[in-house]
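chain below, 375 aa
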Amino acid sequence: MSIIIAALRSAVVPRGGAFGSLKVHQLAEPVITALLTQSGIAAAEVDQLILANSLGAGGNPARMTALAAGMPGVSGISIDTQCAGGLDAVALASALVDSGAAGIVIAGGAESYSRRPLRGETFADGRPACFYTRPPFSPDPATDPDMTEAADTLAAQYSLTRQAQDAWAIDSHRKAVAARDRLQQEIVPIAGIVTDGYPRQLSERLAARAPVLSGTVSLVSTAVEADGAAFCLVVSDAVAARLKPVSGLTICGSVSAGADSRLPGYAPVVALRQLFSEFPRVDPKQCVTELMEAYASQAIVCLQESGLDLQQTNCGGGALARGHPIGASGAILVCRLFHELQRSGRSYGVCAIAAAGGLGSAMLLSQYEAHNPHR
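prediction:
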């Protein structure tokens, strides 16, 4: 089994804020350096770095980050599965370690919404380039909806009112504000920022004044574009036994599933059901859970359809309170779960996230015991 022995992140800052001048590797490097310092692992010991990035940083941002972090011997692997990328990076790290191909892997994601490049499509006939804000996620436009419209369609299918979605967002902010002090233990200071910048005390009255973006989906129930980074240190049993970490999580299993691209918010349900079918002795209601909140409708449906416990879900708030640095968001879920599961004392935790194109990723983790890594 592969073990996560440390997990850290930056604060999450809305686009154009305090991280607005930082490039992807400048967000990622401090988090990775802090991980190595905390764990006592030398940069030269790291076998691989897997970095998720979704807004097209150019080149190989994983290699850029490896060089910035003083790891010239690490090639760096950059991946893009959109919102799911950060979680998928950790899953890939686990596969490398479990296969014996690596003993120490740093995995996660980093996203600079503020510094994202302009993207354009060129044409052979000499027409001017056509710039776009998002690429297609399906070859058929009929199955490639706008994400907000898809969230509204999902809400309609499950009879979710605007009030129900806004209430979820209000609660997300409430939990994030209440947890602000303890969240600092997982946040690496960058540009002097040590707390997430977006959480606030929201009231029903304030939420009701927010503009509607599509149908029942409002600005309040939609995660804001943001900058941030998060990484995990994934190691083998042998490395964990040598380092004797105070705490850690065993990666029990993970699933990356393809589902209906017209309803991307439902895809985590597919992944979660498959994941729990592989671990029939694990009760979803007993798991500490980190669910992505790109939209409130997505989180509500995933909770309801997967049998998860609301009281154990997003205990420190979710992306509706933090913001959504796309490539980093899945890794932020793992980082949050690493710390929440230790705090709770429960045996198991689960993360799940949706991505454009109908992708759903989920991961099951358990408490690592140094004297019995396989529990």
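Residues 84 and 330 are 5 Å apart (CA to CA). The chain has twelve helices and 14 strands.
thats it, cya
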